[in-house]
Amino acid sequence: MSVLRDQIASELIAARERTLALLEPIPDPLLIAQHSPLMSPLVWDLAHIGHYEELWLLREIGAGDPTDPRFDDIYDAFRHPRAERPTLDILGPSEARDFVADVRKRALDVLAVSSLDPDDPLLADGFVYGMVVRHEHQHDETMLATVQLAEGYAHPDAGEGRAAAGADPGVLSPTVLVDGGPFEMGTSSDPWAYDNERPAHVVELPAFRIDTTPVTNEAYVEFVDAGGYDDESHWSDAGWAWRTEAGLVHPQFWIRSDGGWTRRRFGRVEPLPAREPVQHVCWYEADAYARWRGARLPTESEWEKAAHGATGDGGLFRPGRRFGPDEVGAHPAGASSWGAFDLIGGVWEWTASDFAAYPGFRSFPYREYSEVFFEPGATEYKVLRGGSWAAHPSTCSVTFRNWDLPIRRQIFAGFRCATDV
């Protein structure tokens, strides 16, 4: 047990270091401000991380009392939509830091005496601790998206360095063939996997082809320059309605200039890198591009089968690493067993599938993480796979499932295309 306890403590500490490192350079007024109605103030996210940890590691496991009963309302993500959170009586930056530090100290004290009872589903293999660690890492990525939306602020750690060089496009095959037949989808072996990744189950698929890499900026420029945003025939009815309402003409943060295209990345304007995967496109844009190319988005099951054997990671704060993905094909050692590249830790990849429960799904340990998004009226959520450069490795795996509304662009999402055989 001491080895598992030490591992848990190390993961908790590393997650907190990552959070505080992201926020440390940001001035207090920017921590308090709401930079978009789509996002919370950064200081709300920080205190929410602490409140979630208190709920599960102190009150559920340690049977402790709440720090402040008001926090059960203020920091409940389901009670208050993001646009409303700046109006709440939230903690300021110094108070939020003190709160999360106090919660963490007490949580580590509880961990030191915890039995990690293997017969308790919450404690077996440290599941509840893994859930809290992943929750914090996921909010780090959310906060990074907020920082990208902040007008006029350049995060000093974002850097201006170049992405790792990718493969010569003339060497890579445009697509790879994935044979038809059954495969096991989901997981029964990852002790910290979320409920929506379970249970593992067999899925039968016909053969299909899938892009070797995510769609690049240079490929997406062709769609934009060919008038793809102005041709209704490439868009679904819902997609065209949203394109018209939102006035979409190119991916978010792109800027058309006399010399071509630039983009805004964490407060810096730079030339659009041709061989990086396109980012900040919504599902409707990805779907329209695929139709324009005579292809489609892969289903979630196709994506997971094509990703079998793929490896990779994410993570913001590696030494010398700027905030952004590498060029496509930069990590051939992480290719899947079918020969597809960059499936893990480059950009989140939109799939054609609605977010739905697997056969035999059981909600654990609370309905609000997954089950409420499966209910009637919530089927508009689309699944994203693979994990982005901004995601922590713990949420970058072949089976991990993310989901969002098809209009969302602020997330670090791109896509690849598929075709029938």
Topology, please?
Elements: H1 2-23, H2 28-32, H3 42-60, H4 71-74, H5 93-113, H6 127-149, E1 175-178, E2 181-185, E3 201-205, E4 208-211, H7 217-225, H8 237-246, E5 254-257, E6 260-265, E7 268-271, H9 283-292, H10 300-306, E8 348-354, E9 382-385, E10 401-404, E11 413-414, E12 418-420
Parallel strand pairs: 8-11
Antiparallel strand pairs: 1-4, 2-3, 4-12, 5-6, 6-7, 8-9, 9-10
Keywords:
421 residues, alpha+beta, Four Helix Bundle (Hemerythrin (Met), subunit A), paralog of FGE (formylglycine-generating enzyme), 2 domains, globular
3D structure, described in words:
With 421 residues, this protein is α+β, with helices and mostly antiparallel strands. It has 2 domains: 2-149, Four Helix Bundle (Hemerythrin (Met), subunit A) (Up-down Bundle), CATH 1.20.120; 175-420, Alpha-Beta Complex (paralog of FGE (formylglycine-generating enzyme)), CATH 3.90.1580.10. The protein is built from 10 helices and 12 strands. It has helices spanning 2-23, 28-32, 42-60, 71-74, 93-113, 127-149, 217-225, 237-246, 283-292, 300-306, and strands spanning 175-178, 181-185, 201-205, 208-211, 254-257, 260-265, 268-271, 348-354, 382-385, 401-404, 413-414, 418-420. The strands form 4 sheets. The chain has a 4-stranded mixed sheet. The longest helix has 23 residues, at 127-149. The chain is globular and about 60 Å long. The chain starts with a helix and ends with a strand. The model has no long low-confidence stretch (mean pLDDT 95).
Radius of gyration: 21 Å
Q: What strand line-up does the widest sheet have?
A: 10-9-8-11
- Provide the β-strand percentage band: 5-15%
Number of helices: 10
CATH T-level fold name of the largest domain: paralog of FGE (formylglycine-generating enzyme)
Helix content: 25-40%
N-to-C SSE series? HHHHHHEEEEHHEEEHHEEEEE
CATH architecture level-2 label of the largest domain:
Alpha-Beta Complex
